[in-house]
UniProtKB/TrEMBL annotation:
It comes from the Eukaryota. The keyword Phosphoprotein applies. This is DENN domain-containing protein 5B isoform X3. Residues 34-576 form the UDENN domain. Residues 931-1039 form the PLAT domain. Belongs to the RAB6IP1 family.
Length: 1269
């Protein structure tokens, strides 16, 4: 992070360190057990947690970074105090921490924890008393039951051994006369920027001064005063040298156009996780999942957390960020928001014992065992393989293995080797891993070694001194040079890896600005309305990306970090650019400048990072030529006799000299020129301090939607009231998120529907819909896991459903369980109907449980949500689930979201609003499952027999396939069948074999219902099937429409999905006789308009992304489809319909023209023209004959439909229309004013049809089955 705290008066924010802190045991209050840390008292007293205190901190306070005593104490010693005896390992440990304030600004802490002998007799006696009590308890429990309960360390002993109790007592004992007691103490620097390496070196030198046999050159106060008041922050782009106790320390800061400062070695993060794992965790962080890091070592938690968040540039993590979660804050794992937290693992505990409140969306990272658990359905990072390849080249160049390696804890080993070596020959300063591998660390997981270790400890042998020396890669050169080289290598590796990541984002979002929707109004009104506004054109952006990256990108552009990035872009028109954004934009400009390719064109080739060398050189130059040197530490005006020195003990510091800095201006203060002051003022302005900006602060907080204002738990105050308030914030946040998500789902869907009203089925981009639904599933999981009493299974929602199901089945209330109204009983003239579909929560659960494709509880919960959403029952089902209050009380704590009645009701109401639109999120995702369907054929009884004597058959087709021909049992009009998911249903072919006496059949419609989702389709027919009646057809192709269930009717007609196009109505499709009636006859203008609209719809269909196109069959053969529009053209001016009491159809005219073409020679002006005409004639005749000879009993209107479909598919209609218009038969069969006899109309018709030439039209199999052309 570049800037942290806003600058206060003078030059104070330019100081390198803000505070020096000392934490440890308070001799006055003695041993206080730390209840908040949740330690159990079965553990031996040396293993228990006791409260630590901040013993001193200098200065007392800084106004622009107030000292937060509780937070600092908790993070300096997250486990509290720990005690050791002379037989235990007492190596110093280094770790760092971060405090994120509520406004998102950060402060870094760097801590060295070491062990100091306890001199207070009182504390030693208290420890001995605790031991005597503990051993007495252990003894009685062992006598009571043969199995003894031991703490995790003792459990590595052989439990079956009869002497185990004696062994354990000896191992865990503390005898005031025999043992020396040590207690942990921490020294800590708190700084505005993460100069980890420099702070670590300073603390190590301070510690060496304390443990060394010789006193330090100056009193410790001089060094602490120097770093607090006399060492400035290096200016951007410069390096700085200051002095520790023994040797100088160098640090450097990136310039304004470089990547922001990051001092945590990425080498370590890659070594700990391995390249592949790190990319997967990085993807989870980008998609704002819940990430939990798990390690015994605090510094590892920080290294991985800071490493991964550094790589996010130009984006920034916007949610809860606590890389070290103190034991007393474990309830924060219950937070139902995205988080990135680090949890210290206890020695000996394994992952399975870790009870986490929610795991449906959790990425669990076990750092020590190089193992990660990923959320289900995690999309891949774009170009992942090329990306990994590029990163591995950088890593291998630096000799870093690509797989995670079992290397010992950096803080334990390096520090131990540093401190134990003689000062004279150690010039390393903790920069590179020593070649000595700590044997105990390396084999820690080995059971046998663990026992040996325990045994050795009891006999007083220190096994951890045993070491294996790794072979040196080259002869040892001058140590000092090598040390600096090692540090430089880490810096170079850091910057090169970060450049590769930054380059990836520069390539992926190189033209993001084109899709930013700039605010039309002024800043204040933009901030006020921020929530209602879309500020990025997501649909256009996604349509511009290549297919494989869409699953990742569609999720990523919905995240808070992306929204904030775009907000910053829009805000930059009114104020100074965010530093991250400024650097990122300048990189895009640079890339465009160097790139020959047009910036607007996406390239599919992977482009490697080209700036690695120069980035590394910039750092090398800064570190070889130091720009600034700070004042040397010097003697202070101290009272005589203070600053006394006693080896092994940190002295009591003289507070009056450390409380304030020097009064005169330091030489580096005067450098703060007017330009700097102007910058500070600008920054102050942008940091929104000052009264007139209170309003802006309020808007900004609200604008940053959920998570931003919750993103930091207060570490200091842990009273029940504060915890309750935090939970209340979470409840409000969840409700707000639900409101936003449902609103977004509605607006998206309805927006698309409004645009497409009447043009095929309305559909928000399939991809976007999937993303929104996935994020709704995630939200529901988070709501269901908030405030759980006991966690069961990975999906809190599914486990609640299962318990509800068990209770219901136990009470055998299934028969009476609330039944939702299924689609209404649909009566037709015959009184025949589809039986009501019984709908209950349990039956929907059973459908999901029967799906063998889904293997996990999280998957089942997601499938159940999708099914309920598609059935428009989500809100109703969840209401039913929560109506069992006894169960809710058993499962949830009082503060849980699901037990806050008012919020719960609002939440269900928001979900109810989703019933206003049609989702196919279950049908379209689970495409391979077998689904039961029910079909009913409804004849028109008044005019024909209800039952036909012939053998009827049916074939149902959908977007995903068809059933094949199924015979319908005689005298049955309703049947059920099972087949693989057909998707949305499109057509039904219905026919019979014309046998028996009552072979003529007048069918009103066919109804088909999906018995799982309840979707019902109506296929209108309204025509005869039979020889010698109507157009003589024995089979018909019917086009389906989705019938809305009664429940949507209540939601208001305005917001319903526009009806899909259906089969042409009876009037439209009956033979020409009916069209002579005055009412139904459209005029020439309407007919031409109809053609235009039909063609336009087909063009629109092809302009949509492939996955989002609806059914082309509907656009060709539906009610306002192309076939019907052309039929009207051909019917216009058709002469008297009946000749000798026989109906005449368009097909009769078509057959006449074929006969004419086949018998007449062509005349044309030129040979070429004749040839052209001839090919057109022959293809036309070939198609018509193929349709006539097809082994199908299709009537004349059906044949015309096939001809139009084939002509459209093969782009032949514009050639055929002029042939028909010029054929002599037209004068006999059409009146003079007919459209086909008007040259201009025919020409415009040809032009309109030519617009379909460019499209690859694929016809549904059911339309042209059996026609061989």
């Amino acid at each position: 992070m570049s800037s942290t705290a806003p600058p206060g008066p003078g030059s104070a924010p330019c100081r390198f360190a803000h505070y020096f802190v000392l934490c440890g045991i308070d001799a006055d209050s003695g041993l206080e057990p730390d209840e908040l840390a949740g330690e159990n008292f079965d553990q031996s007293p040396l293993r228990r947690t006791f409260k630590s205190k901040v013993l001193a901190h200098y200065p007392q306070n800084i106004e622009w970074n107030p000292f937060d005593q509780d937070a600092v104490n908790m993070l300096c010693m997250p486990k509290g105090l720990s005690f050791r005896t002379q037989t235990d390992n007492r190596d110093p440990q280094f770790h760092s921490f971060i405090i994120t304030r509520e406004d998102g600004s950060r402060t870094y802490g760097f801590v060295l924890t070491f062990y100091e002998e306890v001199t207070s007799k009182q504390i030693c006696t208290a420890m001995q008393t605790l031991y005597q009590m503990h051993n007495a308890e252990q003894c009685s429990s062992v006598c009571a039951s043969s199995s003894c309960s031991m703490d995790s360390l003792a459990s590595s002993l052989d439990e079956g051994d009869s002497t185990s109790l004696a062994k354990m007592q000896r191992y865990n004992s503390y005898d005031i006369n025999r043992d020396t007691l040590y207690v942990s103490k921490s020294i800590c620097l708190i700084a505005p920027l993460p100069f980890m390496q420099a702070c670590k070196k300073f603390l190590i030198q301070l510690y060496k001064a304390v443990t060394s046999q010789q006193p330090p050159p100056l009193p410790l106060e001089s060094y602490i005063h120097n770093i607090l008041y006399e060492v400035p922050l290096p200016p951007p782009g410069r390096s700085l040298k200051f002095y520790g106790v023994y040797e100088p320390i160098v640090c450097q800061r990136p310039g304004p156009n470089e990547l922001p400062l990051s001092d945590y070695p990425l080498r370590e993060a890659f070594e700990l996780l391995g390249l592949e794992n790190l990319i997967q965790v990085f993807t989870c962080v980008l998609l704002e999942m819940q990430i939990l890091l798990y390690s015994q070592d605090y510094q590892r938690l920080m290294t991985v957390a800071e490493g991964i968040t550094t790589l996010l540039f130009p984006f920034q993590w916007q949610h809860v960020y606590v890389p070290i979660l103190p034991a007393s804050l474990l309830h924060f794992l219950d937070a139902p928001v995205p988080y990135l937290m680090g949890l210290q693992s206890k020695e000996g505990t394994d992952r399975s014992k870790l009870e986490l409140p929610q795991e449906a969306n959790l990425c669990f990272v076990d750092i020590d065992n190089h193992f990660i658990e990923l959320p289900e359905e995690l999309p891949q990072f774009p170009n992942k393989l090329d990306f990994i390849q590029e990163l591995s080249e950088v890593l291998l160049q630096f000799g870093i293995p690509l797989e995670a390696t079992l290397h010992c804890s950096e803080s334990a080993t390096k520090l131990k080797n540093l401190v134990l070596n003689e000062l004279a020959n150690d010039k390393k300063n903790g920069n590179i891993p020593n070649n000595t591998l700590n044997m105990y660390e390396l084999l820690k997981g080995n059971e046998t070694i663990a026992r040996l270790q325990a045994l050795a400890k009891r006999t007083g042998v220190a096994v951890d001194k045993m070491s294996i020396t790794a072979p040196m890669a080259e002869k040892e050169r001058d140590v000092k040079l090598q040390c600096e080289e090692g540090e430089l290598r880490d810096y170079k590796l850091n910057v090169q890896l970060r450049e590769v990541f930054a380059n990836r984002f520069t390539q992926m979002f190189s033209d993001y600005e084109a899709f930013v929707i700039q605010a039309a109004q002024d800043r204040e009104s933009w901030l006020t309305n921020r929530e209602q506004m879309q500020n990025f054109d997501k649909a256009s952006f996604l349509s511009d990306q290549s297919e494989p990256y869409l699953p990742f990108l569609s999720h990523f552009i919905e995240t808070q970090m992306f929204a904030t990035f775009i907000d910053n872009k829009i805000m930059s028109q009114w104020e100074e650019k965010d530093p991250f954004l400024r650097v990122f934009d300048s990189r895009i400009d640079k890339m465009r400048l160097y790139n020959v390719r047009a910036p607007a064109l996406r390239t599919s080739t992977y482009q490697k990072c080209s700036t690695l060398k120069e980035a590394a050189q910039a750092i090398e130059q800064r570190l070889t030529k130091i720009d600034h040197t700070a004042i040397h530490p010097h003697l202070l005006d101290m009272k005589i006799g203070q600053g006394k020195y006693e080896p092994g003990f940190f002295p009591k510091l003289q507070s009056d000299v450390l409380a304030t800095g020097p009064t005169n201006n330091n030489r580096w203060v005067s450098r703060s020129t007017t330009a700097q002051r102007r910058k500070d003022r600008l920054r102050q302005h942008s940091e929104h301090i000052g009264l007139d900006n209170d309003l802006r602060e309020k808007y900004m907080q609200e604008a940053r939607t959920l998570g931003k204002n919750l993103r930091q738990p207060k570490l200091s105050d842990l009273s029940p009231a504060v915890i309750a308030q935090t939970n209340w914030k979470f409840v409000e946040g969840l409700l707000k998120e639900c409101r936003m998500k449902t609103k977004r789902m509605l607006v998206e869907k309805m927006g698309h529907e409004a645009v497409e009203l009447g043009h095929g089925e309305a559909n928000i981009t399939g991809l976007e819909e999937n993303t929104l639904i996935a994020s709704l599933c995630d939200l529901l999981e988070r709501i269901w896991s908030h405030g759980l009493q006991v966690k069961q299974g990975k999906s809190a929602l599914w486990s609640h459903l299962i318990q509800y199901q068990e209770r219901e089945e136990k009470h055998e209330h299934l028969a009476d369980s609330p039944v939702a109204v299924g689609p209404e009983r649909r009566k037709s003239d015959t009184g025949l109907m589809l039986p009501t579909l019984r709908v209950s929560l349990i039956s929907d659960m059973r459908h999901i449980q029967n799906m063998s494709e889904i293997k996990t509880d999280v998957g089942r919960a997601r499938a159940w949500i999708r099914l309920s959403l598609e059935k428009k029952l989500l809100s109703q089902h969840l209401k039913q689930l929560l109506s069992n209050q006894a169960l809710a009380k058993k499962l949830y704590k009082r503060y849980a979201f699901l037990r806050c009645e008012e919020e719960r009701e609002q939440f269900l109401y928001h979900l109810l609003s989703l019933n206003a639109v049609n989702y196919f999120c279950f049908t379209s995702v689970f495409t391979t499952i077998v689904i039961p369907y029910r079909t009913v054929i409804i004849p028109i009884k008044k005019l024909s027999n209800a039952i036909t004597t012939s053998n009827p058959w049916i074939c149902v087709s959908g977007e995903l396939g068809d059933t094949g021909i199924m015979q319908i049992p005689k005298n049955v009009l309703e049947m059920t069948f099972e087949c693989q998911n057909l998707g949305k249903l499109t057509t039904v072919q219905l026919g019979h074999d014309n046998s028996g006496l009552l072979a003529k059949w007048l069918v009103d419609c066919v109804m088909v219902r999906n018995e799982i989702t309840g979707h019902t389709y109506k296929f209108p027919c309204g025509r005869w099937l039979g020889k010698g009646v109507d157009d003589g057809s024995l089979e018909r192709i019917l086009i389906g429409e989705l019938v809305s269930s009664t429940s949507d009717e209540d939601l208001g007609k305005q917001c319903r999905t526009p009806p899909q196009q259906k089969s042409p109505t009876a009037a439209r499709r009956l033979s020409i006789t009916t069209l002579t009636g005055k009412n139904t006859k459209p005029n020439a203008g309407q007919i031409q308009e109809g053609i235009g609209e039909a063609v336009n719809n087909i063009v629109k269909h092809f302009h949509k992304p492939e996955k989002e196109r609806g059914s082309l069959t509907v656009l060709l053969c539906g009610e306002s489809g192309l076939v019907v529009a052309l039929e009207q053209v051909f019917h216009h001016g058709f002469k008297s319909a009946r000749i000798f009491h026989k109906n005449v159809f368009i097909w009769d005219f078509i057959e006449k023209t074929v006969a004419y073409f086949e018998t007449t020679d062509q005349v044309g002006d030129s040979e070429e023209e004749v040839l052209l005409q001839k090919t057109s004639y022959t293809t036309f005749c070939r198609y018509v004959n193929a349709i006539n000879t097809a082994p199908r009993n299709i009537g004349k209107d059906g044949k015309f439909q096939i001809l139009v479909c084939l002509g459209t598919r093969d782009h032949l209609l514009p050639q055929w229309i002029p042939l028909l218009a010029e054929c002599p038969a037209i004068t006999r069969m059409y009146e003079e004013n007919a459209l086909l006899r008007d040259r201009m109309t025919v020409n415009s018709l040809i032009r309109v049809l030519q617009t379909l030439q460019d499209f690859n039209i694929i016809l549904e199999g059911s339309l042209i089955k059996g026609v061989d052309v």
